[in-house]
Specification:
single chain, six-stranded parallel sheet, globular, Rossmann fold, pyruvate-formate lyase- activating enzyme, 13 helices, alpha/beta, 441 residues, 3 domains, OB fold (Dihydrolipoamide Acetyltransferase, E2P)
């Protein structure tokens, strides 16, 4: 039996797709092994969000060939779609598959049948030909399962290459998502994370709406909780916020891309909202869900971001009741309109601004964690042991720990948040909640 190992770089969407590719190959008789083991085939799902994609891919390929020098290496993902000729120059690559081809079994089978080392080959359609939605969800890779409900994007922000890497916005039907959610739940999954490129845009392919999807998932009789990975603030409507505040299964955790707290920069970025709308959405969430956790994406060093405009962003975020930041340093990307903008920020200054916002993120996160001490929450525990402890996340995204007990692995437990230690919250058991019995995961 042939064997394959998999490595995922980048977003939750990539994890869902890698897992789906692995299941397809397993159904075709290719056994999955761990990445650090010797395999006949290594599949690397790449990312292009930063300008270090080539360095990351080179490192992963070297590690794979260190396990088996004669193995075949297939590169898929956004980097493969955008820069196949660049990847072709990386030693050790056997085949590069584009966005459309990465789900087609025949290419992997052909690689496995080839004898000896082959020159790198590219199988890649133009992104305009990538119109089909391929359903995906992860399983067994992480404690939470990432369920792909949307792909592609029609927004064309000036800094972003995702529309070129993944194509136009598309989605499955609600009925198909419900089927996949039920299938995942039947395998013992306890949390489903809805993921996509722009999930609030759900419905472009089917004439449905994201709010309809949320309501029907909530009504589904499954023993799972749902988390929304990220949603554009202009697509998070007041009606949806109200529904989520009363939801039976959707957790009070939101990730809202901001990118800049300056309206002048938002306009340059070609974002579809301004700071007033963003602040309104955040305030609405905190009004109806006071314990909700809100995360923020922000980019520093975008062309035209003067020191004054950065300080405008800093002040805006400081004043917002948000709880953590994902901070990205702007990097120049080919085929983006941002390349033509003036006002380039020196890289050293970009790094400095990144550090300022990361420090603010730590302060925000600590304040949120402290605000939750003494309250009761449900925690989904992870399976691994770390220095005698086990880790998990509450429904509102507080990172917690307790003494390791394998009976709690991959189960949900009600706990009281006790004290903050080194960025993690220690919990104590709720006596009224019975200890779970061993189950097959």
């Amino acid at each position: 039996m042939k064997t394959a190992a998999y490595y995922t770089l980048g977003c939750k969407l990539n994890f869902a797709e890698t897992s789906t590719i692995a299941r397809k190959l397993a159904d075709a008789g290719v056994e999955r092994v761990e990445f650090h083991e010797s395999a006949d085939l290594y599949v690397i799902n790449s990312c292009s969000v930063t300008d270090h994609a080539d360095k990351k891919c080179r490192k992963v390929i070297e590690e794979a060939l260190g396990c088996n020098p004669s193995a075949k290496v297939v590169l898929v993902g956004c980097y493969a779609q955008l820069k196949p000729e660049e990847i072709k120059q990386i030693p050790g690559v056997t085949r590069i598959l584009g966005a459309k081809e990465k789900f087609e079994l025949e290419y992997y089978q052909a690689v496995l049948q080839e004898e000896g080392q082959q020159l790198p080959s590219i199988e890649r359609s133009h992104i305009k030909e990538t119109r089909e939605f391929v359903s995906s969800y992860s399983f067994g890779d992480r404690t939470r399962t990432f369920l792909k409900v949307q792909d592609g994007c029609d927004y064309f922000c000036s800094f972003c290459t995702i529309p070129l890497a993944r194509g136009r916005s598309r989605n499955p039907s609600i009925s198909e998502v419900l089927h996949q959610a039920s299938e995942a739940a039947a395998q013992g999954v306890k949390e489903l994370v809805l993921t996509g490129v722009n999930i609030g845009d759900f419905g472009k392919s089917t004439g449905e709406h994201f709010s309809d999807l949320v309501q029907q998932l909530d009504a589904l009789d499954l023993d799972v909780r749902y988390r929304i990975s990220s949603i554009e603030p202009n697509l998070l409507t007041a009606e949806l916020i109200e529904f989520l505040s009363k939801s039976k299964r959707f957790v009070p955790h939101f990730h809202l891309p901001l990118q800049s707290g300056s309206d002048a920069i938002l306009e340059r970025m070609r974002r579809r909202y301004r700071t007033e709308l963003y602040a309104d959405r955040v305030q609405h969430i905190k009004t109806v869900m006071p314990n909700a956790c809100i995360g923020v994406d922000v980019i520093v060093g975008f062309p035209g971001e003067t020191l004054e405009l950065f300080e405008e962003t800093l002040a805006f975020i400081q004043a917002l009741p948000v709880d953590y930041l994902h901070v990205f340093t702007y990097s120049e990307r080919e085929n983006t309109t941002a390349l033509r903008l003036d006002g380039k920020v020196p890289f050293a200054e970009r790094k400095k601004r990144n550090r300022v916002l990361r420090d603010l993120s730590e302060l925000k996160r600590e304040a949120f964690y402290k605000s939750q001490l003494g309250t009761v929450h449900s925690v989904l525990w992870e399976g691994r042991e770390s220095n005698g402890s086990m880790l998990g996340y509450t429904e509102n995204y507080v990172r917690v720990y307790r003494e390791y007990d394998p009976l709690y692995s991959h189960s949900i437990q009600h706990v009281q948040l006790n004290q903050l230690n080194n960025g993690l919250v220690e919990v104590i058991d709720q006596i009224s909640i019975p200890k779970p019995q061993p189950t097959e995961i």
